[in-house]
């Protein structure tokens, strides 16, 4: 038997590579199909579960490969029903993922990177340095773990997935796309792409790439200000990737996909709480068909940031809705367990 360290992670092989493996080892090519189904559709964590394979075939797989599955290390449940998972990866690193139940939906919020390289000043994850990208299987497994929790704890199916956990998904482009391909494939979880939303700080080049790649999922952009100076002070990425470039990329996105963009926006006292800020957002929204989610700020222990009063949110909603921009005011979920937006990794 090979040393564990020498064995390959079997889920790095696609179906073709698996076929080649079986042929090279004197077995039948159709085995690949069976194994692939166990690995993805059935999320097997152990070769022993693959009961339609012979003992010899299972033995051969064990000799060459490992299945690097994630492991839910700790599960916390909020008073509002939100569940936060600390997910341990095969190399011991931890990411977080969240299940958010409401009357209509069961939403999985998943991470795409360990830590984050963008320094958004209001986000807890930004305080961790970026350690590495998640592999497609590590993203896929977070969804599987939450899907199981939906069934077991709530007896309801998982309906939606949002890439709003730790990390910037567009800085881990190919792995995120591969994970989504598997999640939406009938060979995987068979979920509808229109139920998936990718949230980004708004990297223009990558947004154009999404459009060129004709993706079928939804796009959300963390905007927080439509005034360059203010946005740059909140999100340093805006210095290199200005609002003008962003809106040009979003126009391109819309021209190719015909999908509305969602803007995520927090209103803070003394930062972006004036009518001028709201009107700048309105002008930005007019450029590309879009809607706005005014999301609640989740404190991460920095006194410079205070959630604006309700009247200010109503003012924003009023300015936007007068011009036909759908605007929702979103309450946070899972705050008591630090599972809300921007709180991931706050205490772990
Ligand atoms: N990197 C991606 C996805 C992760 S963040 C992105 O930036 O979109 C998911 C959402 O939470 C983003 O809209 C982000 O701006 C928001 N967020 C970050 N910190 C927050 C906080 N403390 N309170 C409320 N929302 C926060």
Describe this structure in words.
It is a single chain. With 348 residues, the protein is an alpha/beta fold. The chain folds into 2 domains: 4-66, DNA polymerase, domain 1; 71-337, Alpha-Beta Barrel (TIM Barrel), CATH 3.20.20. It is built from 10 helices and 14 strands. The chain has helices spanning 15-24, 30-41, 55-64, 136-154, 173-184, 204-212, 228-234, 243-257, 275-287, 310-321, and strands at 8-9, 65-66, 71-77, 83-88, 94-101, 106-109, 113-114, 132-133, 160-163, 196-200, 218-222, 261-265, 290-295, 327-330. The longest helix is centred in the middle third of the chain and has 19 residues, at 136-154. The mean pLDDT is 94. The structure holds S-adenosyl-L-homocysteine (SAH). S-adenosyl-L-homocysteine binds next to β10.
Percent range of helical residues: 25-40%
- Give the class-level CATH name of the largest domain: Alpha Beta
Identify every distinct bound molecule in the structure, by name, code or SMILES. Answer: S-adenosyl-L-homocysteine
Structural class based on helices, strands and sheet pairing? alpha/beta
| Strand order, sheet with most strands | 3-4-5-6-9-10-11-12-13-14
Q: What is the CATH architecture assignment of the largest domain?
A: Alpha-Beta Barrel
**Contiguous helical run count:** 10
**What distance lies between the first and last C-alpha atoms, to the nearest angstrom?**
37 Å
Rg over CA atoms: 22 Å
Order of helices and strands: EHHHEEEEEEEHEHEHEHHEHEHE
């Amino acid at each position: 038997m090979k040393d564990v360290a020498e064995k390959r992670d079997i889920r790095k092989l696609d179906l073709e590579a698996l076929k080649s493996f079986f042929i090279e080892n004197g077995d039948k090519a159709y085995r690949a199909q069976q194994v692939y189904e166990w690995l993805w559709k059935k999320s097997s964590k152990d070769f022993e579960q693959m009961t339609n394979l012979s003992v010899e075939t299972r033995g051969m797989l064990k000799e060459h490969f490992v299945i690097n599955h994630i492991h839910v290390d700790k599960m916390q449940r909020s008073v509002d029903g939100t569940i936060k998972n600390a997910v341990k990866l095969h190399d011991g690193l931890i990411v977080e993922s969240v299940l958010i139940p409401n009357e209509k939906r069961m939403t999985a919020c998943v991470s795409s990177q360990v830590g984050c390289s963008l320094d958004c000043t209001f986000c807890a994850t930004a305080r961790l340095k970026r350690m590495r990208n998640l592999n497609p299987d590590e993203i896929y497994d977070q969804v599987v773990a939450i899907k199981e929790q939906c069934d077991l704890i709530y007896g309801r199916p998982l309906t939606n997935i949002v890439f709003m956990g730790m990390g910037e998904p567009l800085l881990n482009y190919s792995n995120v796309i591969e994970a989504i391909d598997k999640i939406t494939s009938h060979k995987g979880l068979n979920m509808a792409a229109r139920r998936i939303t990718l949230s980004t700080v708004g990297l223009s080049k990558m947004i154009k790439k999404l459009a060129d790649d004709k993706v079928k999922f939804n796009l959300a952009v963390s905007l927080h200000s439509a005034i360059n100076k203010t946005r740059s002070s909140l999100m340093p990425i805006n210095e290199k990737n200005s609002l003008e470039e962003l809106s040009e990329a979003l126009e391109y996105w819309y021209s190719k996909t015909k999908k509305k963009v969602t803007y995520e926006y927090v209103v803070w006292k003394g930062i972006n709480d004036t009518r001028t800020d709201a009107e700048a957002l309105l002008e930005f929204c007019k450029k590309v068909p879009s809607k706005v989610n005014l999301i609640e700020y989740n404190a991460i222990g920095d006194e410079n940031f205070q959630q604006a009063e309700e009247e200010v949110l109503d003012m924003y909603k009023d300015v936007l809705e007068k011009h036909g921009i759908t605007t929702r005011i979103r309450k946070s979920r899972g705050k008591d367990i630090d599972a809300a937006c921007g709180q991931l990794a706050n205490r772990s």
